[in-house]
């Protein structure tokens, strides 16, 4: 019987995959499986994964014939997973020895649908601890009640799929799959759905997952059109939240977060290729106009003056590109 399935997508991370695979070996147990999903790598990553399939206890190699992106790769692993519990790790990150066993122990003790945990961000030689923005630790709660308030960062803003563990019943309820084809912000509709629809969650202070930031091949470092999928992701958040029984309470939070992300991308627009920057401006303006305007006005009024002014200027911009162009 498989107790835990760990889903690990890889795409052109040959320089970092050895650290990831060594950390999985330091977490291996007879009842753990590691689903290594190669998303059509072209840099030699696959050779490392083929060796891991032979030598790493519990390793299962799954291969894509063409690149589908992180969301699709995670879904491939999820569809093959056999464990009672599930966890994610990205192919350029790593975990401390015994970390998954520690999380599993917390899951079994608390008996909740999912847990969220802190992580260590690694940028070059610098390491910084990032905490789940939720003060109550080790206490089972309703995830829906942890979405608000709208004006403060909450656990729904801590969207990292790999910072936690999840019970298989969430798969059966249709809550753990990602939106196929999303190239960035794939965690956002996913975490909102979890918080709206799962029954119970808890936050633990376990600190053992290391998130590598600033990787040259990461989409966060590449200013191409794939970055614009954040608009499609947040459109999905807005659409699904608008159908929720508590939409009047939850939409202000979703709208404010969407605005903050648009402002973030606009403030760093110089990193995008010129054609992509033009598309970003047009698509963001279109997105602002699609939002519920009463909630948008409230969101802008609650923001600092520089971000609010940036978004108001953007909203007045003529729209020439539809959001569908990001697909």
* Overall helicity: 40-55%
Q: Which strand order does the major sheet show? A: 3-2-1-4-9-6-10
Percent of sequence in beta strands: 15-25%
* Rg estimate, integer Å: 20 Å
Q: How many DSSP helices?
A: 11
Q: Could you tell me the number of beta strands?
A: 11
Question: How does the SSE layout of this entry go?
Answer:
Elements (H helix, E strand, L loop, with lengths): L3 E7 L6 H9 L6 E7 L6 H11 L3 E5 L6 H11 L4 E4 L5 E2 L3 H12 L3 E4 L1 E5 L2 E5 L33 E4 L1 H4 L14 H11 L3 E4 L4 E4 L16 H14 L4 H21 L6 H17 L2 H10 L2 H11 L12
Parallel strand pairs: 1-2, 1-4, 2-3, 6-10, 7-11
Antiparallel strand pairs: 4-9, 5-11, 6-9, 7-8
Keywords:
globular; 4-stranded mixed beta sheet; alpha/beta; 40% helix; 11 strands
Please provide a written account of the structure.
The structure is a single chain. This protein is of the alpha/beta class and 327 residues long. It contains eleven helices and eleven strands. A hairpin with a 2-residue loop joins strand 7 and strand 8. It is globular, with a radius of gyration of 20 Å.
Give a brief rundown of this model:
40% of the residues lie in helices and 16% in strands.
